[in-house]
Design goal:
- The protein is α+β, with helices and mostly antiparallel strands.
- The chain has a single domain, classed as Histidine kinase-like ATPase, C-terminal domain (Heat Shock Protein 90, 2-Layer Sandwich).
- It is built from four helices and four strands; from the N terminus they run ααββαββα.
- β1 and β2 form a beta hairpin.
- α1 packs antiparallel against α3.
- The chain is globular, with a radius of gyration of 17 Å.
Length: 139
């Protein structure tokens, strides 16, 4: 079976995408009276492709209005008086360029959860790289 080259995805890349989007700062702004921001990272299995990692960034803030959920990844979309509306669009592109996905769940008054999923090496490809062998698509 040929090895399918895949990018190495890791937690720092997900964190960099979240930071590029200003997600931690935005989460703080959504909690003017205080609250909790939680970041979790764990392996994630998909029926079609089991080798994923998932990072969840959650807050207990105001939530995102349901009318806006389908627009938040659009360039220049913002509900703030200051800001460019590019943060989440940039994060979306970074994650997409790494063959990953980002999605959101939000409930008004209860908070928001962003799910960043990134592919990992296939086990056989990862083993070949660890063993010092070249990874080739035609192997």
């Amino acid at each position: 079976m040929p090895l399918r080259p895949r990018r190495v995805s890791d937690w720092p890349m997900a964190a960099a995408a979240a930071e590029a989007a200003g997600m931690p700062g935005t989460a703080c702004q959504a909690m003017p009276a205080g609250g909790t921001i939680t970041v979790t990272a764990a392996p994630y299995s998909d029926v079609d492709d089991p080798a994923w990692c998932q990072v969840i960034l959650a807050d207990t803030g105001q939530g995102i209005a349901s009318d806006f959920l389908d627009k938040i990844f659009d360039p220049f979309f913002t509900t703030k008086t200051e800001g460019t509306g590019l943060g989440l669009a940039i994060a979306y592109r970074i994650i997409e360029d790494h063959e990953g996905t980002i999605s959101v769940e939000s409930e008004a008054g209860k908070g928001t959860r962003f799910f960043i999923r990134l592919p990992l090496f296939e086990e056989s490809a990862f083993s070949a790289v660890q063993d010092g062998e070249a990874m080739r698509a035609d192997a």
